[in-house]
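Please check the following.

. . .
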Amino acid sequence: MLLLNHSNFKLECGTDEAGRGCLAGPVTAAAVILPTVFENSILNDSKQLSEKKRAFLKPIIELEALTFGVAHVFQEDIDKINILNASILAMHKAVNNLKITPEFIIVDGNRFKPLNTIPFETIIKGDGKYLSIAAASILAKTYRDAYMDSIHEEYPMYNWKQNKGYPTAEHREAIKKYGITKYHRRSFRLLPEQLKLNF
């Protein structure tokens, strides 16, 4: 059973990101403030749920949350500032997109940077412990998946509709065969035998 609150603050915001381990596309974050009375028996860490359940939960979260924000940080910025900084930047942007300023932020994982003097706490595997982080994980995942589906049409040979930019064997093979696109992260080891890509 996931818990509603970690702190004693009423306006507690959960934040999480999706796409950190991908070879292509953005890292996407969401931030969610749930009402003090909120229940949902299906809601869980997005990785534990099927695509169908995530799609079912997305409009419920958007409707029932006091406020939510979603933000992408794209591959060009990931290459400039690295994926960890890009993940934190995406979470900052998502929190800044909220219509209500949170009094406290709970973050999935173990790394975060202070934002606008709002107190925060990082929670390892927080998406499986707190409803607001689980809700944020679902929004981050569904918004990012929708973006990857939209660019799939441009480069169908990488099958982003299926792999969403993650380093599957099929995706790596396509990179080997066709090279990389403008959506690929150039700073990542795209193939096992490449420690660094030379351009």
Summary: Residues 190-199 have pLDDT under 50 and may be disordered.
